[in-house]
Amino acid sequence: ASAPKTHAFEADVAKLLHLMVHSVYSDKDVFLRELISNAADACEKLRYEAIADPALLAVDPQPRITLTLDAAQNRLSVEDNGIGMSADELAEALGTIARSGTRAFMDRVAAASGEGAQLIGQFGVGFYSAFMVAGRVEVVSRRAGSAAAARWSSDGQGTYEIDAVDLDAAPARGTRVVLHLLPDAARYAERGVVERIVRTQSGHVPVPIVLRETPEAEPEEIADGAALWTRPKAEIDADAYTDFYHGLSGQFDTPALTLHYRAEGRQEYSVLAFVPGMKPFDLLDTGRDGRMKLYVRRVFITDDADLLPAYLRFVRGLVDSADLPLNVSREMIQESPMLGAIRKGVTGRVLGELEKLAGADAPAYEAVWENFGPVLKEGLYEDRERRESLLGLARFRTTASGGGWRGLKDYVADLKENQTAIYYALGSDLERIAASPQIEGFRARGVEVLLLPDHVDSFWVMSGLDYQGKPFKSVTQGAADLGLIPLPEGDAAAPGAAASAEVTDFIEFLKTELGASVADVRASDRLTESPVCLVAPDRGMDRQLEKILAGAGR
Ligand code: ADP
Ligand code: MG
C-alpha cells in the first residue's frame, strides 16, 4: 500500500463537526442508528445497481450488517456488504458536503435560530456523529465490482487521510467503519448496550443485523431485517399484530383497534397504530408524551414528533415516511412542514376508524370511550377543525341512558317539544349530579340531561359549541327555557308561583335576609321535589368551573 495522503476537511465539514459534537445531538446513542442506516442504504443502493448489473450480486447476495465488538481494544465496527466506496468516493462522501447553499445554511445553524435548526434536519450529515463517541474513525471500503480497496481515517480535528489498502484488509465488498472509542464511550463495546440500542433504534431496518461479541466470535442475528408494517395486511395475522403491539407499548393487553395502511400521493407513508384495550396509569397526565414513533424508510427517528394531537395521546404505533429526510436531531424534525401534513392525515384516519368502529360494534366502541373518552373530549376545545367529528364520537351518561351510553345524535332525535338546547349538568361524580335538584324540572318534563363528571367537561362546554344547531346549555344557567316545555299530560300543572301574593312576600323576605350574597331570588318552575336550589346567572361562569378554578388557586 502507498503512503497515506492527508487532506483538509472542507471548511464547512470542520464547522459541522464542531456543531455536531457540541450542539446538535442530545443523545449519543444515535451515532449507531446513523451508521446502521448508512450501511442499510449501501445495501439498498447495491440492490438497485445490481438490477442493471446482476454480476455485482453474484457472490454473497444476502444483504447483511455486521457489528463487531472488541472490548479489549475499545473498538466497535459496523460493516456492510453493500455498494462500497472507491478512494475518490470516500473523499467526496466523507470530506465534503456536496450540497449547494451549504455556507448560508451553516451560518444560520450557527446562529442557533429555530429556522436553522429546522434546516440542519434536512441535511445528510449523520456519518459525522461517529465523532461524538470516537477519537478516531477508520472507514475501509471496497466498491462492488472493484479490484481495489481504500481506507479513510480521521480524528475529526480538521484533516483526514486516504490510502490504498490490501484486499485482505478490507471487506470482500462494502464498507467497514471502525470506531476507536473515547474513554467515556467504552460502553459501546459491550454487548448488552449495543443490543439494546439496536433493538430500540434499528430493530426494523430492512437489512438483517448480526453481532459478533469479539472479533473471533461467531456472528449472531440480533435483528431479522423484516419490518412488520411493510408487509401486506393480508399476510399478517392478529397474533403478529398483537405481539408487535406488546413490544411497542410494553403493555400486554389486546388492542381495541388496529390500524394499518399506506398513504400514497403527495406524501407517502405507512401507518401501523393501535388503540390499547386498557387504560395506562398516566393517561390523564397532560405532560404525557404522544406514543407514536416516527420512522423514515424503516429507520427509527424519534418517538416525540407529535404525530398525533394531545387528545389522541393514548394511541400507540408508528408512521414510516418515504419522503422525510433522515434527520440529525430528534428536536429538529418536528418543525418540518411535511410532518404537519402527515399529522393531519393520520389524525383524520384515526378518528375515521373510531367512527367506523362506533357504527359497526357499539359495545367495542363504548369500551374505547370508557377508557379514553376523558382524553378525547379535550379535542372538543383544542381542535376546532374536527369538532363535528369529535362531537359525533362523544358518548355520555344521561338522565335517559340507564347504565349505558348515549350519543348526541340520539339525544337530538329525542328532543322534546319546544326544546332548543342540549342540557347538561356538571359535577364531580355521576351519582351526585344525577341527584342534584337542578335537574328535577328537566326530569319531570322528560327532558334528557347530559351528566358530565369529568374535569375536562367544564372546559369544553364553555367553548361555545353546538351540535346540529343546538347549543349546549347548563341546567344551572337560565331558568326561562323550561316554562316553554310542557309537562307530560296528567302531571300537576306548575304551581303558578309568581301569581301568589304569599310567594311574592316570601321572596321579598329572602332578598332582605340574604342581601348582597345573592344576585336575585326568583320563583321557579324547575323544582318538583326540592324546595330551593342555587342557580348561576344566565351569562355567568358555570358553578362547576368556578369550583375548579377556585381549587386551582386562580
Ligand atoms: P447521508 O446518509 O444522509 O447521505 P451521512 O453523513 O450519513 O449522510 O453519509 C454521507 C455519505 O457517505 C452517504 O451519502 C454515502 O454516500 C456515504 N456513506 C456513508 N456510509 C456509507 C456506507 N456504509 N457505504 C457506502 N457509502 C456510505
Ligand atoms: Mg446517513
TrEMBL record:
Subunit structure of this chain's protein: Homodimer.
Gene name for this UniProt entry: htpG
Name of protein: Chaperone protein HtpG
Domain (Histidine kinase/HSP90-like ATPase) ranges: 27-185
GO CC field: cytoplasm
Region feature A, mapped onto this chain: 1-330
Major localisation: cytoplasm
Family the entry assigns: Belongs to the heat shock protein 90 family.
One Gene Ontology MF term: unfolded protein binding
Top-level division of the source organism's lineage: Bacteria
Xref: InterPro entries: HATPase_C_sf, HATPase_dom, Heat_shock_protein_90_CS, HSP90_C, Hsp90_fam, Hsp90_N, Ribosomal_Su5_D2-typ_SF
Subcellular location, record wording: Cytoplasm
Protein keywords: ATP-binding, Chaperone, Cytoplasm, Nucleotide-binding, Stress response
KW tRNA-binding (keyword) present: no
UniProt key word Nucleotide-binding: yes
Binding positions for ATP per the UniProt entry: E34, N38, D80, M85, S100, G101, Q122, F123, G124, V125, G126, F127, T175, R330
